[in-house]
Amino acid sequence: MAEMHTGVGRQRGALPWPRPRRIATVSVHTSPLHQPGTGDAGGMNVYILEVARRLAEAGVEVEIFTRATSGDLPQVVEIAPGVQVRHVTAGPLAGLTKEELPGQLCAFTAGVLRAEAARLPGHYDLIHSHYWLSGQVGWLARDRWGVPLVHTAHTLAKVKNAQLATGDRPEPKARLIGEEQVVAEADRLVANTRMEAHDLITRYHADPDRVDVVQPGVDLDRFCPAPGDRDAGRIAARRRLGLPTTGHQVAFVGRIQPLKAPDVLVRAAAALRERDATLADQLTVVIVGGPSGSGLDRPSALIELAASLGVADRVRFLPPQTGDDLPAVYRAADLVAVPSYNETFGLVALEAQACGTPVVAAAVGGLVTAVRDQVSGVLVDSHDPQDWARTLEHLLPDRAKRVALGRGAERHARDFSWNRTAAGLLAVYDATIAEHRARLAARLAADPALSCTW
């Protein structure tokens, strides 16, 4: 297992072959054009878009293949110089859940292969697939095009099932099998953290020599503290969002589903009322996002929960935020809560810290990397609302502690950037292409007759 996020290790200068010219990125079930926080759109969308932009700036063209879900968008959309999103028709334009998409993989793969067939041979130098559905497509395209496949899982079914939220549905066996196949077939696997790499190796029997760690980043220009006085910036952000300008605020940002566990925060607010009614009456819980996944079964469940616990007056619901409104959410909050049962990394935690806001997060998955316990935030070892209420009771009245954590959060976030992520991925791509071409050269040397087939 190699850690490549620093961009050092297998350096470009050691390779006799050029850097990839064009990358085919495959994202079947969600498009970088979708708004994160609703449906299946989340951190993976942000990752794909930000990385593609940085790769294009480094001179590598990126074409992103995703399933068409609307007739309003053209077949190809250029979202930045050198970055295109290609919409592939596979099944109805709307109405399919992520669980129904395996039945459309043949149609999607056909669309991807046809797009490449319309180009000159050798148009793409490498395929990078995201999530297991895309890995299935990338695996077949890799064999057809004769180029290497790099795969990023983003979430793993075996990990999710081992840490299942109460009332959530386990991932089906078909996904487990599909993930195992992709892990076995990919030329390289990119993990977001060492913990994810460990899961790939121990749970999926991945070859450690084919696993690289490249940490995600954050847009440090967009996500940053408000200029000038922090308190004034917090009040301005609250006014911008229509939130109370006084009292304490704890924000949750993400898809509303059992895996993300926003109910833990709502229950913690109710538990806090029992522990310290005065403090609880000064608290506003801000939930930013929309129903997703199994949360669509009861889209109003969180609202009903707040009412049943008697804290509906302390909970505010906002839709997913775009543009400068998302950084405003982080700046408005005294704390940002990430109570997920599992996170491969946790981009929300990183975005909040980049804005100088401490994070209270569950000590699971990539969150133990994204948050430095007692330096940039606090990690909670359980999902028990009483434990979360106790943490809030300790932090909210302690302004000095929150200020110190906020400064630590900003410093911690500076260690992450999308430029650094792109540099790490380029190192992986370089090494993968070099190994792929070395294998081809060895085969040709062993059997020169093969040269007529390439």
What brief labels describe this structure?
single chain, 454 residues, alpha/beta, nine-stranded mixed β-sheet, six-stranded parallel β-sheet
Description of the molecule:
The structure is a single chain. The chain has 454 residues and is of the alpha/beta class. Helices cover 41% and strands 15% of the residues. The chain contains 16 helices and 15 strands. The chain has a 9-stranded mixed beta sheet, sandwiched between helices. Helix 1 crosses helix 16, helix 2 packs parallel to helix 3 and helix 8 packs across helix 14. The radius of gyration is 23 Å and the shape is elongated. About 3% of the residues have low confidence.
Main-sheet strand order equals: 1-9-8-7-6-2-3-5-4
Structural class: alpha/beta
Q: Could you list the spans in which at least 5 consecutive residues all have pLDDT below 50?
A: 5-16
Radius of gyration: 23 Å
Q: What about the largest sheet?
A: 9 strands, mixed
Q: Report the principal-axis shape.
A: elongated
Strand % is 15-25%
Question: What is the count of DSSP helices, taking H or I runs of 4+ residues?
Answer: 16
By DSSP, the count of extended strands is 15
Cα(first) to Cα(last) distance is: 31 Å
Question: Would you tell me the overall average pLDDT?
Answer: 91
- The helix content, as a percent range, equals 40-55%
